[in-house]
Backbone:
């Protein structure tokens, strides 16, 4: 039931398919002859619906690029929705769009798809035989960095619910592509099939202590799909990444709104942080500690 409950927390919006350039099937999308290399244009893009061909699969996303100087490199955020496949708005998406323009950030919203090898929308417990979503994201990042001057040293992933769980797949399999991930209301398998990171990655996890969909305190079974298996409780999740990053120090504090656990003195000067929200369930909160949640997340990301 947990997987199906995830579907209740999202608003479905129409999905539009972009044009696929068959001569360059791992990159773009719109007619390059009309615009040239977008990296050297200073025009803005707002939630433009595009498609990319990865292998023999068409994958969809929307893209926002703020107006920039010609050739100027910008931070990149990939935002992963929860729920099932199809077109879902990301929580606080209008706020993230304003953040994109104000802070000059490229934001892409990849859309999940039920491929043959994955049980749900985003593939969990990825291994070498189930790389379809990882390949999609790697191709998408390469395109954004090449065509829109995305900065490889400032590339981040954020996720909600099932999308939060998928950000940990990225941390395991594309740690060389992302500096940090920040997610709300997800977890990862207790026994990941593969999580050999190339480098340490900054982790920020936010979770409601009253979450009835993805438990804060207890491990739980991912339906009957043995390929995913038992999922971690949240303190175990944070401890896993503290160990993965070879962190030497741990601190905690309890505030009226949330409790915080921080792993520091980690490899590659990274850190791992948990914010456990006292009065929140599975729904994405509008604010954390009197700060808009999207800004709360960006404040963590931009430090790294």
Residues:
């Amino acid at each position: 039931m947990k997987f199906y409950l995830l579907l209740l927390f999202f608003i479905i919006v129409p999905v539009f398919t972009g044009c696929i350039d068959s001569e360059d099937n791992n990159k773009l999308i719109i007619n390059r002859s009309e615009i040239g290399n977008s990296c050297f244009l200073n025009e803005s893009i707002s939630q433009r619906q595009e498609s990319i061909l990865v292998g023999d699969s068409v994958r969809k996303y929307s893209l926002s690029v703020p107006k920039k100087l010609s050739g100027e490199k910008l931070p990149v955020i990939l935002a992963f929705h929860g729920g099932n496949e199809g077109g879902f708005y990301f929580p606080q998406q209008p706020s993230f769009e304003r953040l994109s323009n104000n802070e000059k950030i490229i934001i892409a919203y990849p859309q999940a798809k039920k491929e043959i090898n994955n049980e749900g929308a985003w593939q969990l417990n990825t291994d070498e035989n189930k790389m379809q979503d990882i390949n999609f994201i790697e191709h998408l990042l390469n395109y954004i960095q090449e065509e829109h001057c995305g900065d490889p040293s400032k590339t981040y992933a954020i996720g909600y619910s099932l999308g939060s769980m998928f950000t940990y797949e990225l941390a395991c399999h594309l740690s060389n592509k992302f500096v940090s991930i920040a997610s709300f209301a997800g977890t990862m398998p207790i026994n990941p099939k593969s999580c050999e990171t190339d480098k340490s990655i900054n982790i920020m996890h936010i979770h409601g202590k009253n979450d009835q969909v993805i438990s804060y305190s207890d491990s739980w079974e991912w339906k009957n799909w043995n390929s995913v298996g038992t999922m971690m409780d949240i303190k175990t999740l944070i401890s896993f990444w503290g160990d993965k990053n070879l962190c030497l120090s741990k601190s905690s504090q309890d505030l009226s709104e949330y409790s915080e656990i921080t792993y520091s003195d980690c490899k590659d000067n990274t850190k791992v942080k948990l914010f456990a929200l006292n009065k929140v369930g599975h729904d994405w909160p509008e604010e954390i500690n009197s700060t808009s949640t999207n800004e709360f997340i960006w404040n963590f990301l931009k430090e790294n």
